[in-house]
Write a structure and sequence with these properties.
The structure is a homotetramer of 451-residue chains. Chain A is of the alpha/beta class. Helices cover 45% and strands 14% of the residues of chain A. Chain A has a 7-stranded mixed sheet with strand order 1-9-8-7-6-2-3, sandwiched between helices. In chain A, helix 1 runs antiparallel to helix 2. The longest helix of chain A is centred in the C-terminal third of the chain and has 30 residues. Chain A is elongated. The first copy, chain A, starts with a helix and ends in a 6-residue tail after the last strand. Chains A and D meet through helix 3, helix 4, helix 6, helix 7 and helix 11 of A and helix 3, helix 4, helix 6, helix 7 and helix 11 of D.
Chain lengths: 451, 451, 451, 451
Amino acid sequence: MNSENFSLSEAIVSPSYVRKGSQARRGHEQLIRHLLEQGKCPEEGWSESTVELFLNELAVMDSNNFLGNCGVGEREGRVASSLVARRHYRLIHGIGRSGDIAAIQPKAAGSSLLNKLTNSVVLDILKLAGVRSVASCFVVPMATGMSLTLCFLTLRHRRPRARYIIWPRIDQKSCFKSMITAGFEPVVVENVIEGDELRTDLEAVESKIKELGAENVVCVHSTTSCFAPRVPDRLEELAAMCAKYNIPHIVNNAYGVQSSKCMHLIQQGARVGRIDAFVQSLDKNFMVPVGGAIIAGFDESFIQEISKMYPGRASASPSLDVLITLLTLGARGYKKYLSERKGHTTGQGADRKRTHVSRVHVALGVVPVPLPQRCLGRGDHPRRRDAVHEETRQVPEGAEERGGRSARRSPSGSVESGGRGRRAAELKCETLTVCNRHQLICLCVPLRVRP
Amino acid sequence: MNSENFSLSEAIVSPSYVRKGSQARRGHEQLIRHLLEQGKCPEEGWSESTVELFLNELAVMDSNNFLGNCGVGEREGRVASSLVARRHYRLIHGIGRSGDIAAIQPKAAGSSLLNKLTNSVVLDILKLAGVRSVASCFVVPMATGMSLTLCFLTLRHRRPRARYIIWPRIDQKSCFKSMITAGFEPVVVENVIEGDELRTDLEAVESKIKELGAENVVCVHSTTSCFAPRVPDRLEELAAMCAKYNIPHIVNNAYGVQSSKCMHLIQQGARVGRIDAFVQSLDKNFMVPVGGAIIAGFDESFIQEISKMYPGRASASPSLDVLITLLTLGARGYKKYLSERKGHTTGQGADRKRTHVSRVHVALGVVPVPLPQRCLGRGDHPRRRDAVHEETRQVPEGAEERGGRSARRSPSGSVESGGRGRRAAELKCETLTVCNRHQLICLCVPLRVRP
Amino acid sequence: MNSENFSLSEAIVSPSYVRKGSQARRGHEQLIRHLLEQGKCPEEGWSESTVELFLNELAVMDSNNFLGNCGVGEREGRVASSLVARRHYRLIHGIGRSGDIAAIQPKAAGSSLLNKLTNSVVLDILKLAGVRSVASCFVVPMATGMSLTLCFLTLRHRRPRARYIIWPRIDQKSCFKSMITAGFEPVVVENVIEGDELRTDLEAVESKIKELGAENVVCVHSTTSCFAPRVPDRLEELAAMCAKYNIPHIVNNAYGVQSSKCMHLIQQGARVGRIDAFVQSLDKNFMVPVGGAIIAGFDESFIQEISKMYPGRASASPSLDVLITLLTLGARGYKKYLSERKGHTTGQGADRKRTHVSRVHVALGVVPVPLPQRCLGRGDHPRRRDAVHEETRQVPEGAEERGGRSARRSPSGSVESGGRGRRAAELKCETLTVCNRHQLICLCVPLRVRP
Amino acid sequence: MNSENFSLSEAIVSPSYVRKGSQARRGHEQLIRHLLEQGKCPEEGWSESTVELFLNELAVMDSNNFLGNCGVGEREGRVASSLVARRHYRLIHGIGRSGDIAAIQPKAAGSSLLNKLTNSVVLDILKLAGVRSVASCFVVPMATGMSLTLCFLTLRHRRPRARYIIWPRIDQKSCFKSMITAGFEPVVVENVIEGDELRTDLEAVESKIKELGAENVVCVHSTTSCFAPRVPDRLEELAAMCAKYNIPHIVNNAYGVQSSKCMHLIQQGARVGRIDAFVQSLDKNFMVPVGGAIIAGFDESFIQEISKMYPGRASASPSLDVLITLLTLGARGYKKYLSERKGHTTGQGADRKRTHVSRVHVALGVVPVPLPQRCLGRGDHPRRRDAVHEETRQVPEGAEERGGRSARRSPSGSVESGGRGRRAAELKCETLTVCNRHQLICLCVPLRVRP
């Protein structure tokens, strides 16, 4: 309530009690002021009552909630179901404009503020999590893979003749598909074994660049967050190489915000070389529902260029989720979460898991190098460009139960290779076989290895 | 948000859009201002977004929502479940103080405002519904019957020696119990038949007053809302009689707010005679969940005296419900509801129902006068003072289905009279037999007659 | 969903996944089954999703939520505002029937289950908290004081000629008012000083019984939860005395559920003597919003008699709150809360507070015995029966701030005694002066002494 | 509750009441059964209580809500904020899998059902709205423009060498950007004036196909929903032409579901020729928050191909919104909405608007044909491929107020042409100037012309 209404309230209940209430309100306003002034995640988490007060304030700034709203604007922002209106806190204009997903929307000052503040708070968290020199970021209501696609599509306009993306292999389907969907040719660079780890083969990357011609390479597409035995790519060296050859560098940092190691690698890579954008998922990193990602980078104009590639206004739902979550946790709460995650991933448990995983891999020959060879070895694949096939093999029942995960079967795709000779009691495993101009690869998405 | 925060927002999204948002906010504030200034139900209903904005504003004024609240006050207003906190909009201090249910609570300016405004808005609606000279009212989180009990208990302190309540008979259990619970002796005055209606027997009331002595009568307890063949009591004449004999007059107006006839009777009664308080249910009159009532009257000090009889703080839940409902409907919406109800109760359907009901009554001899005689005729009842018994008789299966209501069986009470000679296929009917010093009465609560 | 719908779902998504979902559902059903079977608070708290699933299940059993509901029953349970419907989980029939607040409601099987289960779970918690032999209890949507009033009103019907309630003095306004409201005469028995404690004067109680005549005493009204220097009444001895003289015994256990000492006293009192009912607040004991109480006892028929005194159906809101809270906490969570509270009240902090309090009292002569004398000493009070007056004195500003509580001023009542000779800088203190036939007492409700 | 729990309930409340509650539950189950069996929008809308019951049922089938869930799967579906969990009804796994946005997710049978049912219900509504032979569709949590992009990207894999999209001009920014973002070259075909309408220039389209070579054309990108003076494209003729030249045909049907004319055009186009996919927005057509679209078509395998292009799991939020809305409205409610919209768009008001719009356009020379000429006439644009520029001109203040819309200013883009020589008092209008290989076009997005 404004001061006039507080004054009126003093005539109804005692002035001194109202003044305390008004002071209390100023306390909430003060928190909001800090947020607006600094655009940072508050150190201490807000109470749910402050969060909801703030969201209500934002909602009343949107034209669909203007009182007596009718006439021309009426159709915009009409919501038929009150269940739906309420679950979105009546913020229903979405974010962005047709021209730019990060832009301000004339009819929705509240949703626009939500959008800007979310991006600003998330930027603060990225810094706090280790990428201190990040310059710009925005939340996009798309999966990590689709967000990578948007980055690649943006690069097309900068490098109209390039068609290859150099990609140190990582067996995650959506990373691979992000390049295919963008219409580029992934050039898969196999990793090298060092001890019991799979690491980036820097020499292979460089020779691939030379072979293809730097001007024909859209970008190098590296990965930080992954599961053993694969370790994060050598970002520093890759970033330096990209700078040397003037090739863009996009980093898939899917689950990496919660890993100080991944974040440190990005920070270092940007310091010594070139990283154009790094993309991370919202759900695991920020404990929100699936469906959003953050596209971030060190050059504000490039990040803006990506945000302008999204045609149309977008859902505000992931932004709303992440803003509520970060305001509720506060920087302190988020740091606590990070340190808990660190405990999870660095402790003995993690080591045991890693060992277990690599044993599984070795036992089954799923990963590392043998796989592609085996696939290639079959040699009898149709060499159709970009053909995508899927296959399914079986895992032992026991393994499944141990892992606690139901195995994912691929829908009846054309099974190409896989379990021949293996009994049904073996590892259920989904592979993605793809033939491009340069090679046939068989991506195995191991089912049981994620912690 | 305050003006400072709006200014800060202008730096984030465009100043002109923020100004529109800020203007929109003022629109909501303006509605709240009107409410605070005038204490009346707004003519036009508020949007849910204004209602929730307002409730959030009230909540932040309560000390349990003060930021950084800890220490001494911490235990007050602690709520363990967030589901519970949210469903009460974090208004959890209840209403009133130990001294007065209508009083202001030092630690809860917001809940106190809620309480005061609810009572004020409800008062406005009572006027609008026809009792234009009502002076004061308050919402109490108790059923109508228990609220009547509170009125009677208050009168005890004014008339310490009185013990009788004169009550023109109405076959509703809780009305009767309201007097028993208060510890008084109901003196039941049978109604007279006029045409096919049961009306107040004014002469019998007056002779009862004379018989008992006016100073021994706590009050006359009359009823407006009832079902055919019973019609509302002759309030004007009763009120005049109460004035003449200086006897308090309490009106049970349970479902009467929605009836212009009932409200008119009360207004007229107060004009020509004496009505100390009239009590109405919240649920049916205001379409809110069961559990609240309004105690209203024409003398503010007496109503205040009643409010001070409630020992302890009380639930704010019914007040919250009725305030949300009235703000959402607005005076216009409530009037529309009233006129719809009028259509229901005055049309042909009502007539048909009435005829049907009186035919049932006549056929079964349940009501009118025969009943008490019949009960008294048995003569063999223990004459224990205030003994309460219940009996059950059967209704034809068909009748039950026609009515669409499941019959209410009394729990195995001591069956006293009832079904003698009647077959099991007869009317299932619950009666309440009570013997007081003066007479044995058998209240029949007809099951099927409410519309 | 039922098994048929699960089968249909198998045709849409994979049978094995649906089976897992169906198993998961059975997990929730299993929890509900335990609750229904045993009527006890589950050992482990339920997730919010189980709680809401269960409440939704209850709601669909109520007739207002029957599909295609129209015709006769339509008016019942109509709620105008969807905000209101939702916040009550669409359980809007209230609890009880006009005849009995604990009774089953034919049109609301869901609300009735809610009511029965809440009472059953609360009974379990009372046992768990120390009163192992409690036989029956029910939640009533009224403050503790009003609930005590209901107990006293019930006793009136058992002891029609009795008019006195013997009450070892405790300076809490609503306890005192609970007797006044019920229309009885409180006979205040001053406490005795033992060390720095104020304890029950058993001899004075017994001599009062003899003086008044046991048959004229409605009950002894004792207190467990209180603040230093007052300590809990000697329940064992009082209970034994009540048994000896055949006088009912009602215990005000307002905040005592969280105190193992209070609960132990009640258990012991019932074992060695007579306790007819003990009454406790819901809010502090169960961390729910203000406005409900539990009436409990060792004789099921007496508790039922009380529940039948409430005329009309009552709000389900406090029952809903306490059920949600206890299902969410689980017995384990509630025990944890109890042990935390124990830490608060038994540690050094409590001792320091006590000492401080008694110093304040001694310094100001507010409590103990001097007070009534002083009041009586004034001698000039009108001896009106049951007159209730209030007065206000001042506290030093510093004291107020130290306590962190805003002082409660009485509304401009007729100041009778109090601050004469004291400067404005003294203790702000609210007293309740009452003259009954036997004595004039001046209750001082010390403002700053509650922890 | 299952039958076992209903039986247990019968022991607590009366069996007959429980049976009624259980029957009532079956009523809800029956509605769910119909939905599961038929996959169609229910004729009558569901009550909110059925909707929420159903959503709760879905949620318990997702593994994040499995009781005692811990260990390996724990990290999946973790949500930090209870506000966030609740607003998504605890359905937080998103939809689809990394391989296919329409696929079933092993760990989330409930979310998968939600996804499948939403797509099925939406398909039913598309049929009901006029496209009776539609074979398949899916909801995608992206704006219409981005969804068009996904369609174009899918076509790239079918037509690897094609690079042009033939596009009858429509002045909507996001349509244009959808092609740019996909990396194709829009070939803009100007419309012809017929009376006061702008209609598709079929000859120009055909000659463009011949000029570019059909094999080099990715698709024809036509539009249905638009504002006067532009009328929907001649879909039948375009579809026939696409069939003749074997060119895919993607229809932008952004707001067309609510227009029987647009839907009829699509149905006819598919009947006589070729339509590969048609894309529509969720918000305006289904009155839900901004951010979702439906991609639909007549060949299930192609629609599936598009759904498999989305890399990663996606937000379930738009699907949830549209499912809630359609279940609440029912087919009847949706048809009522459609007929209201028809009233809006065909009545006199629409005519007046159209006339007004074309007057505005004529007056300012913004649209129709003069524009490109004027832009081209400037001739001095850099011929950079795919360069995108924006400009801003002014509108009279009055016009802005009349329209009730705040004008959208482009963010400080490189202003190329536009307002030179115009006074500030002129029409504020955003244009998008783009130079591709073939022509320079200047898209004017008129601000005030949408109804």
